[in-house]
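#random but structural
TW: two for the price of one
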Amino acid sequence: MNTLQKKIRAVIILFLVLIVALAALGFFYQNQFSLKLVGEPMVTLDYQAMYEDPGAQVYLNGKVSHQELIYSDTPVDSSVLGEQELRYSYQWLIFHKDTFRKIVIKDLSAPVIELNGSSNMTLFVNETFTDPGVTVTDNVDQDIQSKVQVSGSVDVSQVGTYELVYRATDQAGNSAEVKRTVLVQAKAVEKKGVVYLTFDDGPNGETTGSILDTLSKYGVKATFFVTGAGPDQLLKREFDEGHTIALHTYTHKYNEVYASVDAYFNDLNKISDRVFRVTGVRSTLIRFPGGSSNGISAEYCKGIMSELVVKVREKGYQYFDWNVSSEDAGGAKSPDQVFSNVTKHLSKNHSNVVLMHDIKPQTRDALERIIRYCLDNGYELLPLTMDSFPAHHPVNN
């Protein structure tokens, strides 16, 4: 064998050894690294939800390596129901590995169902009940509104508390429900010859205490339509001595209270919270500033009283106007005038709801004479309750 042949043979052997070595190295390396998913191999995702991919990791000899070389070829489209496959690939030189994660897009969300109107409604016996219904939306089903089922009923001929349950189920079987309570009350029976003494705008530190003393002296219970003014201890005393605590407003500022329906209820909620904090009881008796017939509310929100007289009832309140006024917030500046305005308008032929203000000194000073007149002339003095005669005015706005 000549020298050239020897050289060729040596080159061939070296080449074969190199191939074998590379193959051995490749086999060793291929079996020493792996591509593993982080998290579960199958993920269930809600329709149109955002997918946060936990990714995958490359391990070489048990250690994380070459993370920058992993790539995923397709994004997850959660707007398409069904199964999708997410592929993770690792490529380095001649070495390559794939792994896969299954993504299942399902409708997992229940319909959103909201009551139209209030969750608590109040009406009188034989009054027409119109169900405001519900509004339903779903992230997948477009015709979900037509699938609402209502259970329960309202018998307007019978006094009682009724519950309506609205339930909606989408095509995926997800369900949601809401409930409405309807209270059917007996109509207020007007008691002839009854006098309801009512006081607005307090409590007041200078006058309310004396008024309570006079009421206590004769064992008479009255009704106080309170505001956010005055000391808590007087409000608590009114409650502790058995008087009815009713809601007037928190601010008594017409421009704020009658700015909108929402503004009214925001204010009403504040005075309701105050009464609850002091007494531990939620009052459901209210009186509108200026009464339901006031026209000044139109300066701030046209038609608001027509809405409020309905909505307060839907929320479980009863509002009380009056049919006897002391005029102590107007022309009656003396105790004699207050006494005269009240007593000359009392009647044995109907219930008498008397408007006074416990913040007025002339009312404080006239009250004992008014009580004695009522007792001497056979009138019954009572506090207002939910079934008392409400003396509603015609609504003018």
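TW: number two ↓
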Amino acid sequence: MSTLLQIVTFNQFQPETAIWIAVLAVLIFLSALMSASDTAFFSLSRTDLDRVKKSNSVADRTILRLLAVPEYLLSAILTATVFLNILAVLLSCVIIDWCVQFTVGAAWEYVVKTVAIAFVLLLFAVVIPRMYGAYNPLGVARIMSRPVMGLKHLLKPLLWLLVHLSGTASRRSMHKKGNLSIDELSKAIEITGDQSEEEKQMLSGIVGFVNTEVNSIMKPRMDIVALDMASDFGEVKQVIIESGFSRIPVWEDNIDSIKGILYVKDMLPFISRDDDFCWQAYLRQPYFVPEHKKINDLMEEFQSEKVHMAIVVDEYGSTLGLVSLEDILEEIVGEITDESDVQTPECYQKIDENNYIFEGKTPLADVEEILGFGEGYFGELEHDAETLAGLMLEIKCDFLKKGESVMARGVKFTVEALDGRRIDKALVDIRDAEPAKELSGER
């Protein structure tokens, strides 16, 4: 205390000084609100945003309007914060001069004032409010949404200038960095001549990895090898031997009700047991994913959950297919085969220059590639069709009979074989097909 008295002497307190101290406290409080808002608005989680979108309250609608143009939101908050902090610093200096008189040199007076003011502003206008904003972002955002919206309208001319100046600088910076989009990277890979076809395919797989959905790589429902919960152990062993799979889904009543996954390695110790062995007790929990999940997200889930296979379901919970870790990896490195894999025949047979026989389950993209049409040849018909059989049903809008034909873009599709109501094989005649170049021009 004695050391402090050697540095400063206290002046007589004036009543009006209390008023200015109160004004300073208000400035610091407003600056704290801006700091908390800055952290809160840009810390909203996906769950918080989903909750806001479902709400009809004025505050939540205002939050969405502010976040729709984040540049203006951030500029408004930072402009107000800087303005309030400058006023707080200036007023703090005046109040200190009114309250105390320094007995040391001007340099020491400047240092003491700077340290004292910076400490107060940093603690009460930055650190504490930002911590609270990060801890309770949705609550703070709801409280501050309307005040910040009013501030945004008040400062609109200044914000417009700031945003456009910063946008110009940002665009120049991005131009210097030469950032490439995914489409640009894909085109660059296509025109590169140094890599082999296998290397180009792998690079293209990596580039398109984040945009690929599960439903485009899954094994469709009709190709799933699965077990009935009511099967005896003899039937289970037969399916294991014939399929060669290490993991097999198990259903009850129908395949839309998957109850578990049977790991073949769990059955090895019991291989000599009788048919009445209770193999169902060794089922593992199935892992379900929606059809539109991105495969890069699914890859992370496989790693964190330590699973290698998932059941793909639609919005109603019906089974659409099955996807494995191997399916995801094959999107990057191509087909993976080992000594246990059975080599399947080609999905098509070329009869002559104009006629081909395809399996109905052949992916439509593969059909277009084999026929040399190019992706998207059949236009809008492809929106709800993923296989050749699906395309034929889309054209007909009804089930087809054996020998029945449909036409699209001059291409004739004829049913060669049926498996129940499913198109097993189809004859494709491309004699009168429209040129691919004309179609690409239309699109």
